[in-house]
């Protein structure tokens, strides 16, 4: 199985020569600037850990609905714990997405995580995966900063003690009665800085190309899919593209799908206004608003139905 988007090796940046590191930075910048996506290999996250996380996720999502609902606190606006099937919709979509999910944040950042007592393996698997994905994200943000001619740690430091989220996603089998236009995840862009998506258990992810056609992205073991979020697009004045993507329904009504996206957020007070150097590289005029990360997040959570 071959990948349809650029594939980058993180070890080239971590252990390569200065020339190899510079090449990685250039490849990353070109991928995020051209299509907003790339696949990452040699990232150091053990495949066994990802599979253990999926096994724990399956155990949680096959619990009775009455049990899962005990971990859904509407006052948290979906920021922790369980969110029931059909509660979230893509911006401007008339239909709710065909999914349910569980949100996990940093243990040191409020609100507190909600852990299912019925599946004791869920907490250690997800916390370990959270730590590993965060480590990887910090490195990628340093590479982004280098491409953008920003201070090397500026983007990574903005995510320390932030509302970064690991979303444990379950797409149940799709009923034949569902409207054809109602998708597992309707066309949308991510809100955050960057997203790291562990290999999903089934295909379905597609990104929209410049001509409006859809490009399938392969779910290949050992690859993490990385994409630009709206916040990083805003900060870079569009130099990095936040690309529309979706998750299609399967061909039959038996298949379920799990995925593990890691949404890397800055702290609420971080200024997302277009950086002067990025403005200079994108025509010389600001094309995106002056706004903080907290303000941006609140607006988008309203748009997708979580507040």
Keywords:
single chain; about 300 residues; alpha+beta; Jelly Rolls; eight-stranded mixed sheet; 12 strands; globular; metal-binding; oxidoreductase activity; Iron_ascorbate_oxido_reductase; iron
- What best-fitting shape do the alpha-carbon axes yield? globular
Q: Can you say what the CATH homologous superfamily is? A: B-lactam Antibiotic, Isopenicillin N Synthase, Chain
Helical/strand content category: alpha+beta
Strand order of the largest sheet: 1-2-10-7-12-5-4-3
Counting DSSP H or I runs of 4 or more residues, the number of helices is 9
CATH architecture: Sandwich
Largest sheet geometry: 8 strands, mixed
Number of separate strands: 12
InterPro entries: DIOX_N, IPNS-like_FE2OG_OXY, IPNS-like_sf, Iron_ascorbate_oxido_reductase, Oxoglu/Fe-dep_dioxygenase_dom
Pathway: Antibiotic biosynthesis
GO molecular function: metal ion binding; oxidoreductase activity
Protein name: Isopenicillin N synthase family oxygenase
Short note summarizing the structure:
The protein is an alpha+beta fold and 307 residues long.
Overview of the structural elements:
With 307 residues, the chain is an alpha+beta fold. The longest helix has 26 residues, at 122-147. The chain has one domain (7-303): B-lactam Antibiotic, Isopenicillin N Synthase, Chain (Jelly Rolls), CATH 2.60.120.330. The strands form 2 sheets. It has an 8-stranded mixed beta sheet with strand order 1-2-10-7-12-5-4-3. Helix 2 (18-34) crosses helix 5 (122-147) and helix 3 crosses helix 5. Helix content is 31%, strand content 18%. The chain has helices spanning 10-15, 18-34, 47-61, 65-68, 122-147, 154-157, 230-235, 276-280, 293-303; strands at 7-9, 37-41, 81-83, 100-104, 165-171, 185-188, 194-198, 205-208, 214-216, 224-228, 245-247, 257-264. It comes from Leptolyngbya iicbica LK. GO terms for molecular function: metal ion binding; oxidoreductase activity.
């Amino acid at each position: 199985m071959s990948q349809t988007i650029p594939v980058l090796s993180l070890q080239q940046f971590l252990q390569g020569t200065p020339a190899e590191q510079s090449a990685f930075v250039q490849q990353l910048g070109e991928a995020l600037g051209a299509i907003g996506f790339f696949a990452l290999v040699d990232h150091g996250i053990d495949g066994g850990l990802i599979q253990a996380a999926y096994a724990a996720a399956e155990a949680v999502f096959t619990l009775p609905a009455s049990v899962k609902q005990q971990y859904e606190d509407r006052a948290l606006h979906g920021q922790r714990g369980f969110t029931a099937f059909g509660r979230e919709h893509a911006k401007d979509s008339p239909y709710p997405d065909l999914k349910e999910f569980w949100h996990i944040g940093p243990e040191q950042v409020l609100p507190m995580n909600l852990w299912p007592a019925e599946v004791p393996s869920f907490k250690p698997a997800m916390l370990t995966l959270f730590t590993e994905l965060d480590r990887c994200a910090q490195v990628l943000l340093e590479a982004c900063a280098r491409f953008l001619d920003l201070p090397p740690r500026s983007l990574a430091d903005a995510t320390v003690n932030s509302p970064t989220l690991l979303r444990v996603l379950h797409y149940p089998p799709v009923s034949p009665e569902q409207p054809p236009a109602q998708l597992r995840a309707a066309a949308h862009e991510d809100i955050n800085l960057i997203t790291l998506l562990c290999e999903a258990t089934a295909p379905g992810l597609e990104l929209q190309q410049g001509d409006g056609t859809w490009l399938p992205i392969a779910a290949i073991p050992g690859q993490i899919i990385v994409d630009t979020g709206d916040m990083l697009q805003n900060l870079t004045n569009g130099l990095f593209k936040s690309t529309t993507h979706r998750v299609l329904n399967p061909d039959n009504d038996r298949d379920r799908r799990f995925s593990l996206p890691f949404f890397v957020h800055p702290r609420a007070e971080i200024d997302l206004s277009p950086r002067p150097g990025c403005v200079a590289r994108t025509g010389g005029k600001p094309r995106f608003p002056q706004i903080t990360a907290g303000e941006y997040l609140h607006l988008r959570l309203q748009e997708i139905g979580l507040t």
